[in-house]
Structures are given as C-alpha cells and as structure tokens.
Amino acid sequence: MADPAGRPGTRLDRFRAEVRDWLTLNLSGEFAKARGLGGPGLEHQGHEVRLAWERLLGEAGWTCLGWPVEHGGRGAAMDEQVVFFEEYARADAPQRMGHIGEGLIGPTIIDFGTDEQKRRFLPPIRRGEELWCQGYSEPGAGSDLAAVQTRAELVDDEWVVHGQKVWTSLAHVADWCFVLCRTEPGSQRHKGLAYLLVPMRQPGVEVRPIVQLTGTSEFNEVFFDGARTAAGNILGAPGDGWRVAMATLGYERGASTLGQQIGFRRELDRVMEQARAGGAAADPILRSRLTQAWIELEIMRFNALRTMRSPADGEPGPEVSIAKLFWSEWHRRLGELAVDVRGAEGMVAANADPYEPTAAQRLLLFSRADTIYAGSSEIQRNIIAERTLGLPRS
C-alpha cells in the first residue's frame, strides 16, 4: 500500500525499509534454508527451523503487530500491517506457524478474556512459544457451524470435553485448541454453546492426521474423550460461545490477506513464465485465461483494501463471504491453469515411487480444499444471497 501522499521518506517508506532490511539480514545464515518453506500442502516442511524462526520474530517484535501495546503488540496501524505482510511475502520468508494464535485466538482473548487469561495466554503467543489450532468443524457440522455436538460438562473445577472435531489445521503440532462446544444439554443451534481453551497435550486428546490428495497431512481429526481444562479457561460465559466464535471468524479479515495475495502473485508469475517458455502463451484460449487470472487478482487486491477500510464490528458481514468466495475459486482455477499450460507433461508426476507431485500438480490438488475450508463456496453464496440480496433462505 503506497503512502497516500506518495512522498519518499514518509512514515510508510521508512517502515517498509525497516521491515525489508530486517528480513534480508535475518533470512541468511542458519535461516537461509527456511526461505519458501511451508504453506498449503507443504506444512510438513522444516518444522524445527520454522518454529525457531517464529521465536526469532517474537524476540525482534515482529509478531502481533496490530495488538495493542499494553498486550505486547506494536499497536501498528493497518497500513503498516499491510506493508509488513507484503514485504514478508516478497522476501519468500517461511510460512508462519503461529498465525492462528496471533491472528485468531489472540485478538479474541484481548476482546473477551479476563485479565488473568490475558496474562497467561498472550505472552507465549507473542513470543512464538505456544501454537494453537481451531476446534470448530465436526463431521456433521462443517460450514453449518451451529450444528456442533461436541459437549463439555463442568465437574468440580474443570471442564470435561467429549466429542470430535475434523479438518483441524495443524492440530498435530498445536499446544492449545479453542473449542466450540455445548455446555447446556438439549440445546440447539446457536444456544447453549461455550468457547473453551483446551490443552492438546493430555491423555484425553487423540489427533489423527488426514492424508490429503497431495500425500501430506495438514488437516487432522481430533477426538476429545474426557479431555480436561480448568474451569477458568472459558472465553465469555457459558451460552456465549456463538458470539465469541463469530468474533474470531471476523478477525480472519485482516492485513495478512494482502500477504496471501503476494503469494498468489508469485504463483501466477510462475505459471506465466511456464506458459511463455513452453509456448502455451501463443494459444489464444490459454492466453485469455492467463489475462483473466491477472485481472481478477488485481480486483482481489482492490476489494481487500476496500474491505479493510470498512467497519469490522459485530459478526462477519457478507463482504467477508464475497472475499472468501472470490479468492478460493480464483485459486482453484489457477491450479487448473498451472497444469494446463504444461500440456501432456502436466499430467506426469515428478516421482512415481514414492508418489511426488510437481509444484503445479500440488497447486491443482490442494487448491480444491480452498473452496471447502473456512466455509464452503456453497455456504458463501448462501450468505451473500440472504444477507446482501435479501433472497429467501435455502
């Protein structure tokens, strides 16, 4: 995001230079090998070095930029956050391991947590010492989150949790999980829910990785069989879970989306380079698809900037669904295009035994999940139709 006045040496120029210089200096030596590691379909890469990098970011004050200063953040303005995520993506820095803690549960604790909860949970997130996962989706409650059946009962001074979550990103490496569950027997839909903070490393928690089309396992099933957490590890009051859960989803609309789009730009640039090198760019149909992908990525950026300038109070609005639907469907089409520009070669695996897809094939396969997780495309269309266009409920 350019400085509004466009002058050299402005606040944003200086901040951008500071970020760029720090990344250049530190993505060298022992962390040079961390460049480009991780990301969708590649979350298994470089766990230890990425975890060490997360802690280095914390030590240097580059985590939790937008958090208030009194909670350990920088209190950075939105334009500074955008600059950081853009430069982080351009530097090909490793994919963050603490983004769920920093971007989702951290802001939720700041807004809904007690002073004791803030003292306990915020510092380890900021320092990159504790990783989090999100316990929302269930086998019968994916995009329809209000159908959750995981239950918790207060026994003496602990919540005892029973149930199953699925498609839980990074649960296999997480220390904590924020779990949406029912604490009122017989309650339905949005009523009777609670938002619990549950430690993952205990006998009552079993994590089973889900093998994806790419052959890797970023997503997991999580089984709670008498898992326990302290009575005080609840955000809001019992019955308040839906309100807190919706606030968490609202935090997903942030400056990091601009960094995501820089990653998309790199992927599109690689597809275009392949199209030129292999001659596919001479095909009028493929050339039209490449042009359309470029145009839509520009639209995606403008819409993200517009959305971040709009109020973010209350439940996530339809603009969040518009953005999710747009980028996920765009990314899926890019995966198809990445393989198509390679012609017949695009169908041949990089290695057959053991199976190893090429980068283009991995993009094709993993991007299918983009249209499902965080609310499927079908659900996003329903939200847009009902809340924006006023159409009858399906």
Set out the fold topology.
Layout: H1 11-26, H2 47-59, H3 78-90, H4 99-112, H5 115-126, E1 132-135, E2 151-155, E3 158-165, E4 176-182, E5 193-199, E6 205-209, E7 220-230, E8 234-235, H6 241-250, H7 256-278, H8 284-309, H9 318-340, E9 351-352, E10 355-356, H10 359-370, H11 377-388
Parallel strand pairs: 1-4
Antiparallel strand pairs: 2-3, 3-7, 4-5, 5-8, 6-7, 9-10
Helix pairs in contact: 1-3, 3-7, 4-5, 4-6, 7-8, 7-9, 8-9, 9-10, 9-11
Structure description:
- The chain has about 400 residues and is α+β, with helices and mostly antiparallel strands.
- It folds into three domains: about 10-95, Orthogonal Bundle (Butyryl-Coa Dehydrogenase, subunit A, domain 1); about 130-240, Butyryl-CoA Dehydrogenase, subunit A, domain 2 (Beta Barrel), CATH 2.40.110.10; about 250-390, Butyryl-CoA Dehydrogenase, subunit A, domain 3 (Up-down Bundle).
- The chain is built from eleven helices and ten strands.
- The protein has helices spanning about 10-25, 45-60, 80-90, 100-110, 115-125, 240-250, 255-280, 285-310, 320-340, 360-370, 375-390, and strands spanning about 130-135, 150-155, 160-165, 175-180, 195-200, 205-210, 220-230, 235, 350, 355.
- Strands 1-4-5-8 form a four-stranded mixed β-sheet. Strands 2-3-7-6 form a four-stranded antiparallel β-sheet, with no helix packed on it. Strands 9-10 form a two-stranded antiparallel sheet.
- Strand 9 (about 350) and strand 10 form a beta hairpin.
- It is globular and about 70 Å long.
- The model is unreliable at about 1-5 (pLDDT under 50).
- InterPro entries: Acyl-CoA_Oxase/DH_mid-dom, Acyl-CoA_Oxase/DH_mid-dom_sf, AcylCo_DH-like_C, AcylCo_DH/oxidase_C, AcylCoA_DH/ox_N, AcylCoA_DH/ox_N_sf, AcylCoA_DH/oxidase_NM_dom_sf, Mycobact_Acyl-CoA_DH.
- Pfam families: Acyl-CoA_dh_1, Acyl-CoA_dh_M, Acyl-CoA_dh_N.
- Keywords: FAD, Flavoprotein, Oxidoreductase.
